[in-house]
Amino acid sequence: MKAAILWTGGKDSCIALHETWRAGHQLRALVTFTPENPEFLAHPLEVIKLQAEALRIGHLQVQITPPYKESYVAQLRELKKRYGIGLLVSGDIDEIDGHASWMEDCCAQAGIELRRPLWKMPREHVFAKAKEYGLHFLLSCVKPPFLEKKNVGSEFYPAAMEELQQLAAKNNFDPCGENGEYHTLVLDAALFRKKLSRSAGEVREKNNLYYLHGANYALHEKAFTRPSYPRKKIAMAWSGGKDSALALHRLQQTNVEIVALFTTITKEFGRVTMHGVREELIEAQAERIGLPLLKMYPGGNTNEAYENALQELVQQLRTQGVEAIAFGDIYLEDLRSYREKQLRSAGLEGIFPLWKEQPADLLEEFFHLGFRTITCCVSSALGEKRAGADLDRDFIAALPEGVDPCGENGEFHTFCFAGPVFSRPVQLQKGERILKALQLKTSGNEEAAPGFWYCDLREG
Questions:
Q1: CA 416 to CA 240: how far, in whole Å?
Q2: Reported confidence tier of residue 21, pLDDT bands at 50, 70, 90
Q3: Is the peptide bond before 450 cis (omega within 30 degrees of 0)?
Q4: CA angle 321, 327, 331 (to 5 degrees)
Q5: 239 and 328 in contact (C-beta within 8 Å)?
Q6: Over the stretch 63-112, which tens digit does the pLDDT of each residue have?
Q7: 1 near 354, Cβ under 8 Å?
């Protein structure tokens, strides 16, 4: 999912950024909401822009005007529309003056998910995260009587985090400064491609705060190695189609460890459920991806049969240390809720790398990356000729009005045969097209559904 980080330039937002990267999300932007004429004593905008450059992530300064809540909602909607942001990440740790619930409401109205990776985290764990992610920061602003003028500009490295915790214990204030006892500016961290340095500057007083004024900051080269934290092990739900292929590619650019693909096979026919793709074609994809393929064979066509088979597979994955399962779903809320419910009962997490992104944007990314895919199954309403067709820009442009361009509502399914996740393409031969009525079974009742055209694909 494309994520924006609520960015102050301080340690908590920096830890939240690293946690978001580690979870496998795409870091799309750093966002700083500002009033019309901002004066930030603790977090100068010029330093925030240098931090963004050091991280190689775009920075967005977003102006907020009265009435503030309506302005926040409008700007969040614009972030979603213009940049595809589906996730807003905050470094908040505790509720302060109702701010957290207020931001939750703004995000809900804008249709954006809000996450707070540090929420209610014990303070010693926050500092452990700061050390793990290699944070080097300074105190840019302090509030007496908790801290004194002489503390402004003090720098803290990973090896010296205990000094700040000891100071908090001595002076009886929140170790993370969550109540405004102090503010920080991060000079370096694991994901920084460059590090910041500070020179000069003087300590001034305003509004019963001591802050650093007039300091000069500069970027310097550093030996950067992509961080290698203990990686979350995940399995990828694999249909063989374009959405799971794009989701897999995104995950491969993150720090998660993908240990296996798994797919659902209708045992009677030896084909992928719903897609109708031959089992050997999915095996050919997995071989070219270089991951083991686990197969799920539900003992029937009911939800109960699927859930029983899934629970068996999940238990097998847990023995391999798998902590989460990734899906290529885009926006079907009921489907996501269903998947997450099944996973929660087994103690696993669901990951949705494409969630709430615009289908047109996903397709452009898919084509730009060089993926190739063919329709293996289309709704009868789309016509026989669209089964076994290359899914390209012309195919999308010719779809009838109201059809989702990604087929998210089941209008069509695809088989991905080439692209950056494969060591080499899967060579295909097209067979006959067959029209089949879909029979749905729920709680023992069978219902007829609109038919589907299937194109029989073979390797060769």
A1: 6
A2: confident
A3: no
A4: 145
A5: yes
A6: 999 999 999 999 999 999 988 899 999 999 988 765 557 889 999 999 99
A7: yes
Amino acid identity, residue 138? L
Q: What is the pLDDT of residues 407-438, one digit of tens each?
A: 999 899 999 999 999 999 999 999 999 998 76
- With beta carbons less than 8 A apart as the criterion, state whether 155 and 200 touch: no
CATH number of 2-221: 3.40.50.620
Where along the chain do its domains lie? 2-221, 233-459
Q: Which two tokens stand for residue 424?
A: 């080499």
Only one residue has tokens 């977003």, namely 62
**What is the distance between the alpha carbons of residues 151 and 392, in angstroms, rounded to a whole number?**
60
Interatomic CA distance for residues 290 and 295, integer angstroms: 16
C-alpha to C-alpha distance for 423 and 434, rounded to whole angstroms: 31
Structural contact between residues 174 and 143, judged by C-beta atoms closer than 8 angstroms: no
Alpha carbon distance 4, 91 (integer Å): 12
Residue 46 one-letter amino acid: E
**What's the CATH architecture for 233-459?**
3-Layer(aba) Sandwich (3.40)
Report how far residue 202's alpha carbon sits from residue 356's, in angstroms, rounded to the nearest whole number. Answer: 46
DSSP string, 168-227: HHHHTS-TT-TTSSEEEEEEE-TT-SEEEEEE--EEEEETTEEEEES-EEEEEE------
Helix (H, G, I), strand (E, B) or coil at 343: helix
Give the residue from 426, 417, 425 showing the smallest Cα distance to 245: 417
What would you report as the CA-atom Rg of the chain, rounded to the nearest whole angstrom? 26
Global pTM reads 0.57
Q: Do domains 2-221 and 233-459 have the same CATH topology?
A: yes
What are the structure tokens assigned to 277, written together? 């793709």
Position 368, amino acid = H
Q: Label each residue of 347-401 as H, E or C.
A: CCEEECCCCCCCHHHHHHHHHHCCCEEEEEEEEHHHCHHHCCCECCHHHHHCCCC
